[in-house]
Amino acid sequence: MSGTDPNISxxxxxxxxxxxxxxxxxxxxxxxxxxxxxxxxxxxxxxxxTNGVFAKWRWGLVWLTQIIxxxxxxxxxxxxxxxxxxxxxxKFYIFGWVFWPQEVLFLSLLLIISAYSLFFFTAIAGRLxxxxxxxxxxYTEIFLWIEEKIEGDHNARLRxxxxxxxxxxxxxxxxxxxxxxxxxxxxxxxxxxxFTPVKELLASIPTFGFGPWETFWIFFYGTFTFVFAxxxxxxxxxxxxxxARFQSVMFDPDxxxxxxxxxxxxxxxxxxxxxxxxxxxxxxDCGICVQVCPTGIDIRxxxxxxxxxxxxxxxxxxxxxxxxKLPRGLVRYTTENALKRGWGSGEILRxxxxxxxxxxxxxLLVIVSAFVWGLATRTPLRFDVIRDPYSLGxxxxxGMVENDYILKVMNMAExxxxxxxxxxxxxxxxxxxxSEVTIEPTxxxxxxxxxxxxxxxxxxxxxxxxxxxxxKDAPGLQRKGKAVFLLPN
Length: 489
Hints:
Layout: H1 12-26, H2 53-71, E1 76-77, E2 80-81, E3 83-86, E4 91-94, E5 97-99, H3 104-125, H4 128-133, H5 135-151, H6 154-162, H7 167-192, H8 198-204, H9 212-232, H10 234-240, H11 243-250, E6 257-260, H12 262-265, H13 288-291, H14 312-323, E7 331-334, H15 336-341, H16 345-350, H17 355-376, E8 381-387, E9 394-396, E10 400-411, E11 417-424, E12 430-432, E13 436-439, E14 443-454, E15 462-471, E16 478-486
């Protein structure tokens, strides 16, 4: 991405050009508010590219998230897809683990961890998720990069959009939309690859033999990526995302946010060569902070819900301060209290530890600990016993009382297991049926078993008995199941 290099001149015409650029980037039509009433008229934001610490962090997260997203379905583990939420088989393969629908608790804990992580990091440093890792932010950044490479910088894009339709404009727009469309469809294909094995999807490409739901989701997600990242962009953050509306609940005066130092910057005035700036602030009113903002806001107006906390305005402003030989930090990450009281970085860090962050952190630690403990102690065997509801207790030959049971043995590991099944709980009880069973990896076996007890050993109508399943090839892997043994009437 090209760096920010505004034209700082002493001429009135240059001031006028800068104001025009600022007006265009901010979406001002020269008459103040674009529309009176409930909704403001939308003006396209022509984002100016910049570089710097925060811009590099953003692109670093773009690369990281997309390498994970596009690469993970191709990663192989135990001769299968490493990460696969297989809806048809109703199994979730996550590296060395295989999760079943009965283990929805782990998914619930993961969602709770994600929510509290959002609360925790937002309370500390604002909208980090929005500025650096949100899919809307990431894909908008990618689409803007494609647009810039094809149409040119922000001024060139503005001129192209204002020009009448001709062969050149049609060709440029067609190429851009074609690349956007191809990328969007591949994004939809990749999403579906998390739920249907990617090898099956690849085999279906030549004949377009996708199933109905695969076809729907590839085009559905691809279309939304195309529209949201290509056209709606900041409108999704400003009008559709609920997080922007309730973020203030998680902010307090010690939350780090992108802030304009009004005391230092005001009164702002354009920079002219040789001019005495006594009584004027450090802000030279160049408008670069607005031109680089992906949502088109003016950070100098204070904290706004449209601000996604990406920090690119800090990079742009610091570059201007370097050019005019003024100290950096006119726009910076700081807190409301730090700005009012003149705190340094040490004092700001000390105020990170406060009741709000400690409570969020403690809750997050407890939930993460429970999640890790659950994974560490998870037994790859599930065993359920159900007394056959359609069969009554009965007396059979030899003075024995017999009941029927359905045993469900689920081998949740990715190795074949052989299990021994036994029954206990009443004197002389024995089992009729398979006492040894071999179950393939990640398979479920249902067995019909009879339990027999000498009639003399049964004193009550209803009695508790226990079935136990023990692995022959994995010491310590065992489960018990309780059941009821009934005497016939």
